[in-house]
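Summary for the steering committee. One of the milestones for this cycle was to obtain a three-dimensional model of the protein with pyridoxal-5'-phosphate bound, which we needed before selecting residues for the alanine scan. The sequence and ligand used are listed below.
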Amino acid sequence: MLADGMKFEELSIAWIRSALPTLAEGFTSLPPTDSPSIDDSAMLAVLQETATRLRENYPYFHPLYAGQMLKPPHPIARAAYALATWINPNNHALDGGRASSEMEIEAVQGLATMFTWATHLGHLTSGGTFANLEALWIAGQLHPGKTILASEQAHYTHRRISSVLQLPFDSVATDPQGRLDLTVLESRIQKGDVGTVVVTLGTTALGAVDPLPEILALRDRYGFRIHADAAYGGYFTLATNLDAETADSFAALTAVDSVVVDPHKHGLQPYGCGCVLFRDPSVGRFYKHDSPYTYFTSDQLHLGEITLECSRAGASAVALWATQRALPLIRGGEFSGMLQSCRLAALELYRRLHASAMFIAPIQPELDIVVWAIRGSTPEESSAKARALFDAAARRNLHLALVHLPQSFFPANTWLTSAKVAPGPAQVLCLRSVLMKSEHLAWIDAIWERIEAAGQEVLTAVNTIT
Ligand SMILES: *Cc1c(COP(=O)(O)O)cnc(C)c1O
């Protein structure tokens, strides 16, 4: 059962009711149209059925959903998105989305300013995957046939995107914190075929941040391109409570060649909102196609000329614009406070896991993702217990996620039986919590209570069997 009194936010419905007439006022010169003949009760019945079907989801909106990277949109984003659908603009071209294209340009400018970029060319995309595809496509245009390099913890789509673009791809090892290993990276670069290094600021599994300042220094020496995949982590640029090393990597984003950030991850947006930024606006030349309206000065863009996708939701741009108006992207502001509280929640959960005899939390969170294993005599036993804990927590309404970590991320003495005796799998199944709702901090006791109780249940069950 959900906590008493838990229900959906309804304020945004009232906001839409008051804003819709304002929108309509812009079109009073038009002759009235007949109201559409819609069978009200039939539509209502369908919507009721829809609501019933939607109940078959995990409760992503609730703080006890502490699993995958899912975050509810801000009410202002929901309202602005819905309002825009009455117009349904298409940001492919100014013809399709005049106001919403301007709002996109302003919202994207806001993101470039967040990374302290003086120049940029950028736009919204359907998500991080497509944004990364565009960044690697440009990388391939500039370094044809050269290898794309990313860490083993980089998002799985980079390998696939490279294959779509027919560019060679290679991955390099990470350190036990999940960050790209600089020694391995440098020796791989010395082979001479690397055109672009993908640096992840906030890996999807662990929230690990690759050491960007050191990678920039390698770029100075070897001359490759740097693409920063900050789809999940990018907004932490604004957070004021990061460790010094992590903060240095975010500050260094100012010097990369391209960056991807997903407003639909940490930016409080409904799905369908990624963003790619290029620091050199002249890469717009690669997008050239035979549309008659081409101009590539950075202040006079026709968005359809600098995107690979054709139709794009104007509503996404409107929602992002409204959210940035309500919650400006400034360090120390309300929005950055939300990110800071997510990190505090992650540190607090980590502290409790670390202090508990039941669990092994090998990595202190850099952002707001916590990963932990359950103690066991072998990695196999630990993995089986992780699966059981995942279910036992769900029975208590706490929804976690599972992730495989390489055994090398754990200290050598983690398992009672040493890996020498039982070769065992290379990976250990772990629990993972992305604490990306600002309410998570206030819910840490409730979350911890359920993790402990589920852990006890799993250990008791194992003891009864053996
Ligand atoms: C989520 C994520 C992606 C993929 O983005 P989508 O919006 O899911 O397409 C790429 N890279 C990283 C680091 C991510 O966290």
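Key point for the committee: The domain at 334-465 is CATH 3.90.1150.10 (Aspartate Aminotransferase, domain 1).
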